[in-house]
Every structure is written in structure tokens, then in C-alpha cells.
Amino acid sequence: MQLKTLALAATAVATAAAQFQNLPPGYTNRTKPRPFSTFGFNIIYQPDYHHNIIYPRIVELDCGVILATASLNTTPGVFPVFRSKDGGASWTWFSNITDQHNGLGMDAQPALGPVLPAAVGDWPAGTILASGNSWGNSSGFIDLYGSKDKGKTWQYISNVAKGAGLGGGLNLTGDTNGNHIFEPTIWYDNGTVGVFYSDERDPAHSQKLSHQVSTDLVNWGPVVDDVAFPRWSDRPGMTTVAYVPPLKQYILTHEYPGGESWNGENYPVHYRLSSSPWAFNNATSIPLSVNGRQAGSSPTVVWTPAGGPNGTIIVSDATYSDVFMNRFAGQPDMWEAHAIAQPDGYSRALHVMRHNPDHIMIMGAAHWPGADVPGAVRPLSVTVFSVEETLRRPPRDAYPVNRYW
Ligand SMILES: *[C@@H]1O[C@H](CO)[C@@H](O)[C@H](O)[C@H]1NC(C)=O
Ligand SMILES: *[C@@H]1O[C@H](CO)[C@@H](O)[C@H](O)[C@H]1NC(C)=O
Ligand SMILES: *[C@@H]1O[C@H](CO)[C@@H](O)[C@H](O)[C@H]1NC(C)=O
Ligand SMILES: *[C@@H]1O[C@H](CO)[C@@H](O)[C@H](O)[C@H]1NC(C)=O
Ligand SMILES: *[C@@H]1O[C@H](CO)[C@@H](O)[C@H](O)[C@H]1NC(C)=O
Ligand SMILES: *[C@@H]1O[C@H](CO)[C@@H](O)[C@H](O)[C@H]1NC(C)=O
Ligand SMILES: *[C@@H]1O[C@H](CO)[C@@H](O)[C@H](O)[C@H]1NC(C)=O
Hints:
Blueprint (H helix, E strand, L loop, with lengths): L38 E7 L7 E8 L5 E7 L6 E6 L7 E6 L10 E8 L12 E8 L3 E9 L7 E10 L16 E9 L2 E8 L8 E7 L9 E4 L9 E8 L4 E7 L13 E6 L11 E2 L1 E2 L2 E2 L5 E5 L7 E5 L6 E4 L8 E4 L10 E4 L6 E6 L15 E7 H6 L13
Antiparallel strand pairs: 1-26, 2-3, 3-4, 4-5, 6-7, 7-8, 8-9, 10-11, 11-12, 12-13, 14-15, 15-16, 16-17, 18-19, 20-21, 21-22, 22-23, 24-25, 25-26
This protein binds 2-acetamido-2-deoxy-beta-D-glucopyranose (7 copies).
């Protein structure tokens, strides 16, 4: 999307819980979740008044430990890493991913995972990859980081891409071809690691989606287009990717400012299918809608084998608290919107639980761009829901609900 609220960074350390006015139902008297169960709206971390937390990401290690991170506006910015050993029921602040290379911070839009299934370059199987945007006044860097010790420490690996900086200022009202890069996502396929990101540097496009690949994590190939529309002002953004085995295809979700909007949605969610994760550019962007309501803004996607012979593709957006589910391998007219216990939020993270793919973890925090109502700082929170149980309930067609604050 656009720029994060870097200018709001404060120096106070996040400790005290904020005072709220309109509390969401169940906020004050939630019961403690049982380990490895399903549960709703479990609070991981509550920033104080001077901070906000937004844009969470999740990775699960082979041993079942879950790590989560998000963008926290400390000065300098760090990506806090929270750890759960019990399926998301309880969490501790375990480590931080810090900028070790640019003298800046880790300021926005973290990527976390995958865990390398095989060695790549000098980095052994089991390495957890991470990325994010490290932003200064004159440059912005999408760098790759790795952890060889299950997330306790993080080391700089290499720079993937460089874009414009913030110019000492912040412009939330628009960012038209400012040469920035945003929103990395890391993908592993057969010995190759790719980093997808939103890209304003091509003069032919206000913004397009690009990726670069590496087979040693040090040398990165040329910028390859994934979604680049012919109309200059179109701004596809925010790639996430999943593999859909029954189709033998990969799905890429993106928001699409400039795309057809028939219900006032300015960031309608679209998706593409391709037989290679490195070749989405010739695929068609399909709008994700249910009964004329379009999913909107900062989509994320996973596929789970649960839910039927085709498994289920699950997409989260920012406009609705509901998730969008498709048991027909992405067939455009077969999406259903289903209620879950997680409030809506900007770029919520989705994760299929390794021990039980019927269990989907969804994590959220602030709305764009950080604090919703003055004085109301939303926590980082997590829900685990059952695919089968959710699909048994009738779909409810994307009612825009759960705007608690
Ligand atoms: C807990 O929350 C529910 C629903 O929000 C409410 O009906 C109930 O009275 C609350 N219980 C206590 C002990 O606060
Ligand atoms: C992470 O960073 C925060 C903010 O800078 C700091 O207060 C905290 O001590 C750090 N935690 C760890 C585990 O490094
Ligand atoms: C970036 O620019 C802002 C506003 O001009 C200034 O306050 C800040 O010191 C600059 N930061 C660096 C690292 O130069
Ligand atoms: C912010 O961006 C908008 C749209 O591009 C532009 O009209 C406005 O002048 C910019 N504001 C600043 C302070 O640069
Ligand atoms: C995986 O990579 C190897 C080595 O580059 C190649 O020979 C093989 O064909 C690839 N397999 C698939 C399924 O792409
Ligand atoms: C897209 O199609 C064009 C024309 O057929 C071809 O030249 C190009 O290599 C294709 N790009 C990808 C990424 O498959
Ligand atoms: C699986 O998906 C395909 C492709 O959309 C569809 O034709 C088929 O009916 C689906 N099968 C089931 C059992 O849902």
C-alpha cells in the first residue's frame, strides 16, 4: 500500500497497556486458550499509547514452534519476534530482527519464513528467512535476514533490492511513482529463493509487482514482472503466494487500486494462477468477490488440504473480518465469506498449522495506517479456527463487521 507512519515513531518503550474506550466483545474476560486448540482473539502484545503494531507475519518451525513478527514503530524500528510453543495459546517476546546493515531500522512490512527445507548457498536446511523494509531519508532497502538458531538471533544475508527513501517526510495521501519498493514476500521452490515485492521504480508503471530470485541468497537475478498493468496509474500491490497441489498451480493474491470496483472498494483484491511461482506475468488477474462484494486491501493467501478433495484456498483482506474460502481450486464464482473470531486488520497473516491442517491461524493488529481512533492502539492478536467447522456454518457473504474500535 502506501507509506507507513514512520513519522509517528516515538522513543518511549512499549510496556504499559493502553486505556480503551470501546472494547470489543470478550476483550476483558477472555478465557485462556487451551494449547493446540481453536480459540478467538488471543492477545499477544499490547503496545502503549505511543506505539502501534501492524502487518503481522507467521512462520512455523519443523518442531511445531510458531514465530510471529510485525512492524512496531520503535526508534529505530525493530521487528519483534514472538514465540509460541503451544499452538498460539501463549506467547513470549523472544527476539528482535534489527537492521544490521544500513544504520537505519527495520521499519515496515516484515516477511517471515519460509524455513529452508534444504541448504541454499551457505545457509543450511532449517534456516528461517526474513525480510522487510529498512527505510532512510534517501533510500529504502529490502534486505534478506536468516536465523540458524530457530529465531533466537538473526543475521543479515544480502540486499535484494533498493528503492527511494522517505525524503525526510511522509506522504500518506498518495505515493505516485516515488521509486519506492514495498511489502516483500519470500518464497522457496526447488533450490531457488524468490523475493516478491511492490515496485514503483519502473517509469512505465505507477507501481507493479516484481520478484527476483537467487540460488545462493547472495546474488539476485534481474527484476521480473509478476503483475504490471498497461495503464500507468494502476497500482497492483502486496504479493502473497501459495501452492495449490490439486491444480498443480501457484496462486498470487494482490490488491489492485485502478482495477474494476463495483462496490466502492478502492483496493479490490485479485488473484492469479500460474504453473510456476516465477511466471505470473501472463496470467489474468481475477477479482475476488462474493455476491458483488469485493474483498479489499492487503490480501494474504494460504491453501490447506482440509475442506474437500480440492482442499481450500483461504484469503484474508483488510475490509472484512470474514475470510474468503474456495473449495474449487480458485474457481472465480465459488468463493464463500465466512465469519471468524478475529477482528479485521491491515494485512492479517494466515498460516496452516503443521500438526493439523484443519487448523488455520490468523493474526491481526492495527488497521491502516496504525492507530484507528486517537488513544486506541490495537493489540497484536491471534485466532485459530477449524476449516471443517467454519465451512459447516452457512456463508454470510462478507458482511463488513467487527470494527470494534
Ligand atoms: C464476558 O463477556 C460476555 C460477552 O462479551 C458478557 O456477556 C459477560 O457478562 C462477561 N462476563 C464477565 C464476568 O464480565
Ligand atoms: C527488542 O527491542 C525492544 C525495543 O527496542 C527492546 O525493548 C527489547 O528489549 C528487545 N528484546 C529483545 C529480546 O531483544
Ligand atoms: C530524515 O529527515 C528528517 C526530516 O527532515 C530529519 O528530522 C531526520 O533527522 C533525518 N534522518 C536522518 C537519518 O538523516
Ligand atoms: C502527497 O502526494 C500527493 C499525491 O501524489 C500530492 O498531491 C501531495 O502534494 C503530496 N504531499 C507532499 C507533502 O508531498
Ligand atoms: C529442480 O531443480 C533441479 C536443479 O536445478 C532441476 O534439474 C529440476 O528439473 C528441478 N525440478 C523441478 C520439479 O523443477
Ligand atoms: C509471456 O508471454 C510472452 C509472449 O508469449 C512471452 O514472450 C513471455 O516469455 C511470457 N512471460 C512469462 C513470464 O511467462
Ligand atoms: C475441484 O475443483 C475443480 C476445479 O474448479 C472442480 O471442477 C471440481 O468440481 C472440484 N471438485 C470438488 C469435489 O469440489
